[in-house]
Amino acid sequence: MVDFNNTIDFMGKRKFATMISAILIVISIGSFFVNGMRFGLDFTGGTQAELLFEESPDLEDVRNVLGQNGFQNYEVVFFGSDLDVVIRIQDLQEEGLPLEESNQTGDRVLTMLEEASGQNIELLRSEFIGAQVGDELREQGGLGMLVALIMIMIYISLRFQFKFAVGAVVALAHDVIIVLGFFSLMQFDFDLTVLAAVLAVVGYSLNDTIVVSDRIRENFRLLRGVDPTETINTSITQTFSRTIITSLTTLLVLLALLLVGGEMINGFAVALTAGVIIGTYSSIYVAANVLLYMHISKEDLIPAQKDDEELDALP
């Protein structure tokens, strides 16, 4: 038996939740138009060089050397230790460098820093990414996300019901837009690791949404004389402890990555942290909310009965 006295009235706050979601989406989309995305080296093209110093360098001095030699769009971070430095230089073609010289950028940076610091510096690796490759990565990433949403909608339509599919896809689109809007608003670098994190958020949010949807479907079939709002409240309450425990344990891991993971995976950890928080919220308030707006009912989940003629034709 279900104890309705201990059921949390999640859907009683659904209008307020809808308003919050609408505000966040409007802010995110507005930021796309005003700020745009700050694409990383993977999408803009440029050079990434990893240098090993004899003594720990002052990163501000490294930045000054790059600035004095005509570079404008660059990033300098430690990589693994305070002797290992990664330098990312973007938009080389806009800096006036011919394409054939772009491949030697790592060597030129090495020479500049050795002269300025007086140290023997080892160039561990130097990678050049053309702007055309960056454009292709950006297009393929967006296309991959669109295909993923379409396949998810088809799967949930077959596994559950069309209204559940709409709710799940709306929740996933909601999560992706807000995470991307967060990166646009804060002007964090968006590179392939962040794109991977966004796709991971889609998987995480979908898993949570399916758990809740499965319980909603089950309760619609089991509970008698209960309106859809109460059925959804009961279902979310029953899965709420599982949702919170899963989210908290995931956030503990992400917190460790944020604190000790280093600069190279910082964007990945930030995107996943934001995504887990938004995904937990959307599995409760967005997907279920869509079901109520689409007037989900017990009849939607009852298999269609065969006609009498079809039954008579059966042996």
The value of Rg in angstroms is: 26 Å
Order of secondary-structure elements? HEHEHEEHHEHHEHHHHH
State the helical fraction: 55-70%
* End-to-end gap: 40 Å
Oligomer: single chain
Q: Which spans of ≥5 residues are poorly predicted at pLDDT below 50?
A: 93-101
Order of strands across the widest beta sheet?
3-4-2-5
Instruction: Please report the total strand number as a whole number.
Output: 6
Write up this protein.
With 315 residues, the protein is α+β, with helices and mostly antiparallel strands. The chain is built from twelve helices and six strands. β3 and β4 form a beta hairpin. It starts with 13 loop residues before the first helix and ends with a helix. 32% of the residues are buried. Residues 93-101 have low confidence and may be disordered.
Task: Provide tags for this entry.
two-stranded parallel ribbon; alpha+beta; elongated; 12 helices; 315 residues; single chain; four-stranded antiparallel sheet
Concise overview:
The protein is an alpha+beta fold and 315 residues long.
Fold blueprint:
Layout: H1 14-34, E1 38-39, H2 41-44, E2 46-52, H3 59-68, E3 74-79, E4 81-90, H4 99-102, H5 105-117, E5 122-129, H6 131-159, H7 162-186, E6 189-190, H8 192-222, H9 228-260, H10 266-285, H11 287-293, H12 308-313
Parallel strand pairs: 1-6
Antiparallel strand pairs: 2-4, 2-5, 3-4
